[in-house]
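Notes from the 1:1 (GR / supervisor)

We went over the backlog. Supervisor wanted to see one worked example end to end before approving the batch request, so GR pasted a single chain during the call. The sequence is below; no edits were made to it. Supervisor asked that the structure be written out right there so they could see what the output format looks like.
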Amino acid sequence: MEKNEFEILKTLSYAGSMDVLFTVTKGKTKFTDIMFETKLNPGILNRLLKALMASDVLEKDSDGYHLSNKGARIVSYTLEILALEGEKDSHKDIKEILSAKTGQKIKA
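Structure output shown during the call:
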């Protein structure tokens, strides 16, 4: 496994990382919105956002944080895994948003 791949997996394993990705997918893109939605400590959230950006999972612009293409694929794969665990109807809103972003129907 390459170092970059290891770093992405390490970043995604941090507590709260998937909560952040799901929150950003739903359109909460400002730091304070993400903080209140995920209930993460500001310092922890700041480090997590930096790690997600360094792994090219998130991007930041003047409007806030957004999923990169890689980030959208990660959320999509996560939803597929959750569907295998019997959570097919959960996160329906996220599936619709991702489908619109990627132009592909999310199977999960």
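Supervisor's comment: Helices lie at 3-13, 17-25, 31-38, 42-54, 69-84, 92-102.
Batch request approved.
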